[in-house]
Every structure is written in structure tokens, then in C-alpha cells.
Amino acid sequence: MFEAKFQSFDDAADPARGTAHLAKLRAELDRRGLDGFIVPRADAHQNEYVPPSDERLAWLTGFTGSAGVAIVLRDKAAVVVDGRYTLQAADQLDPASYVVVPLGDTPAERWLELNLPAGGRFGYDPWLITIDGVDKLRRAVTSAGGTLAAVDSNPLDAVWEDRPAPPTAPVVIRSPALAGESVADKLARIRDKLRDEKLDAVVLSDPHGVAWTFNIRGGDVAFTPLPLSWAIVPAEGQPTLLIDGRKLSNEVRHELASHAEIVEPAFLDRAIDLIASSGATIRLDQATAPALLAARIEAAGGKVLKGTSPVALLQASKNAAEIAGMRAAHRRDGAALARFLHWFDVEAPKGHLTEIAVVEALETFRRETGALKDVSFPSIAGAGPNGAIVHYRVSRATNRPVKSGELFLIDSGAQYEDGTTDVTRTLPVGEPTAEMRDRYTRVLKGHIAIARSVFPLGTTGAQLDPFARRALWEAGLDFDHGTGHGVGAYLSVHEGPARISKLGTTPLALGMVLSNEPGFYKTGGFGVRLENLELVVDGPAPEGAERTLLAFETLTLAPFDRRVIARDLLSPEEIAWLDAYHARVREEIGPLVEDKVRDWLNAATRPL
To answer: pTM higher than 0.85 for the full model?
Structure first.
């Protein structure tokens, strides 16, 4: 009945192939006089999702997770992954060729320091490692008694015989009605920021920032409408946009040429030389800029000032048109979610569903809106114990039946032209246990605490994060991920620089959109995560207030499952919030769905 269009469930792991590729790489390293090499899961922009032509880690090792790094030495090799991927890496890697190293126990640089032989010459690709990353590598290699060497060309690319070609998806101009601000106005604001910080220019190494600045979108990577590109914006003078000309129609090229000089990416080094040769002070985004750019600027006589790109904060605060688009996208998505949740309620008790079937169904309901461009990330659909794996991704090998007496966790999102969504619900199949109800309700209490927060201007995500954990802490429980991340407007579902987490140091500002997703995970048992997206808005103005207050407006419109709520754990204020939220869902989504779904929605959102 349903078929996923954007997501694949095939297992790409092939340990034997990974071992053969490792031998090829070692032979090339030996030819170049290198005793080791680092292979990050990264492209030159440090994108979360990379095109097939940049899936070097997967080609080399067979590991297909979205984060990790391989360190290859002459006689041993390691793949370092964070806690999300230790089980997946163990399944996909050949244990005779690679050791899986948990990042929490041993960072990649520490493993390198402990295992690189004295006198070893260790190589890295300066296009794929950031400035800070090179500093860490240098300290580790020096401590081991070796030397660090930047390669002129990547040795892995030299032996990757069937490497896919770089993507050339067409670039489109974002509608002014959706962008809400002209390119000229955005460039003026960026230049103001540069002058404020006494910078002569900024290199935009993050394609999300380029896309936002020039009001363009593309299709070079999965899940995010990105055109891979670079830009140089000077405080005075014309910007340079570096993008593959094959992506540009005549109309698009003409529009972009009115704002910037259009140059092929192969000339990025010359463009850098040109602006740096005057001794310019140039900002590089420390999170995304490759180390090669810093070396190039300094060699040409410029000064590097690393830090956060001035575009990041401008981009994070959505304008009125972007906010209107996000609201519209969430209403549309809410109708698709209501149809899906009704379908799940009917079908799950029959005992024939699997995790993949659920993912395919949800994607189909979203496609039937007629507006879906892509999913915003691979759906996380965990039945029973799989729901306790925080970033579980179902494959045909792991596909688990949806069973009675278990919880089902579904975390998914959509890319619509007017906005990006990300929502998680935890659904009971059959009768939930008392423990399930307790944990679900404690997570819900944390979610409500964030949603109801009123906070002074200047508050950071780290200051709000404990609100989401208090009810869990009181029972000796917690979760090991952040409470929320930023979300773009038809851009990345994971957008910086603001986040709600213990490490969230960026103050929250009007127009930012962040997720609110506390959770609980019982290994081998079940997982609970409840996620809505929140828009930062003006807070109340009580009489006598001495600070400007901010608050959250919930964008996501989907019911929480009343059957898993332990009502006695909720305060009257929490119940009032939940009832008001459900009334809003009923009022906004009810008119958008057919009678049978509306009847289900009315029951699902009745007052607690």
C-alpha cells in the first residue's frame, strides 16, 4: 500500500569490500611515504549530509553512520564513533580490519597519540579538517613523536575507482514571498556585522549560509535543499559566489549576477588570494571552514580571525515571511500526522506492521499533501527495544515487528518549500505498563516545562535545559542528548548556533525555531521521546518587570497520546497547558482532515 520515495532501508554494509578498500588505501599511503591517514565522515563544508562523491568513510570501511572518523595506520585501523553508532559500527565493520572505538572513551586524537609509531608521518586532507581539528591532530602526532603532513590530493580518492561525480542539481531562486528579505538587504546586514567586528571580509564555507544569503535552494545532498557552494562577502565591494555553473540556468545566473560575481569553485584559492593579498582580516567559520583556507589566507598576507559566521545568527532569527511559512508548513504537516496517527491506531493492533511499514506510511501521508519536497532526515522508527536506541535507523536487516504491549517511537520530519518540520511521538500498542506511563509522563512534564518557559532576553539554551530534566532527575533518571536544536526555514533540520542543551551558550533570540525533545531510554526495553518545534516570541510584560521577556510558541500540531499519561503526575498547570494545546490542535487540524480522521482527532484531543 505504501512505498517510501526518499528513504532507503537497504544495508550498505559490506565488511569484505571494506577490507579490500583498506588494502588499496594502505598501498597508496606507502607509495606516498605516509605511515597513516585520517578519513573523516565529512565533505569540505562539514555538512551533516554529504553527496555520494564525499562518502569516503562509507566507501573505505562499510560503516554508513552520519558521524565518525577512521584512522588508518600501517598495521592497524580504528573507526571512532559516538554513542549513537557503536552498535551499528560493530555490525558493519570487519573486526579483523578495524577496531570500533567509542568516542566517549577515547577521542580519535587520543587513539592516534597512543598508536602512531614514533617517527611516523601522518597525513590529512586539509579540505576535510577544520582549523581546530588540525590543531588537535598536530598535538596528538607531536606527542607520539611523529610528524603531521597535509596532502596535496586525497590518497583515498586516488584509489576510489568508481567514485561518483560531484552533484550538479539545478539551483532555484527562493520566492520573495517565502524569503521575506531581498539579497541586497541581507548583504547590507552582513556588511554591518563585518564593520561592527572590524572585519574586512567573511568566507561563507557553510552552504546553508550561502543559500540563505543569496535566497537560493538546490538538491546536492539528501534531506536538505542545498546547493553546494562558497561565497566571499567583503565589507566593501562586490561579493563573490563560487558555484558550479552547470547548476545555473540562464535566468538564475542573471539574477545572481546582479548581486555577486559568479565564479567556478575551482578558483576559490585565487579568490582567497585576491582579497587576502591586501592584508585583509578575514573571518572563517571555525565550525565549517577547512584548514586549507586558513593556510591560504595567511600565505597570501591576510589575517585569519576564526569564530562564528556573522550569517549564522542572522539566519537563525526568522523574519515574518519565514515564520508565516513555518506555521503553514506545520499545519499541513499536522494534517498528514493526524491521518498517520489515525491509521496507526487502526492498523497496529492487527499485528501486521513493521518499522519499515510505518515509515513508508508516514512518508506517503506527507507526499499526499502534494507539497512534500523531501523528508528532513531519515525517520527514526523504533519498536519496543529499538526505541531505546536514540538515533536508531531501521534497515531491512533490523526491521522489527510492531508488537502489542510495547511502545513505538517515531521521530520524523518533512521539507516543504515554505518550511521544515521535525516531530516525535511515542505511541502505545496495546496496554502500556505502569513503568511506561510513569516514564512517558515525566518526559511530558519536561516537554511542557520548556514549552511554558518565560525567560529574560539573553537567556541561553544551557540555562533552560534543566527544566526538561527535573521530573526525570527526581526519579533518578536522565537522557544523554540535548533537549533541542535549531531548525532552518526550508534548510537544515539541525541548524546552529542556538540549542537547548548543557552546551548551549548562544542566547535565544526572537524568531529562532528550536526543537523541544526530552526523552527517556530503557536499554532493551523501550524509548520515549516527545518533540515539538518552538518559535521564540515576545513574552508577557508584567507590571513592574525589569527585564524584557521571551517565550515559546509551539509550531507542531499533533496530539500526545492520552493512554500513556499518568494524570496524577501532572500539576493543574500542566494539565491546563496540555488541554489548551490539544484544543488548538483540534481547532486548526480538524477542518483539514476527512470525517473519520476528524472523529479520531476529537477523541484524541479531548480534555484530560
So the answer is: yes
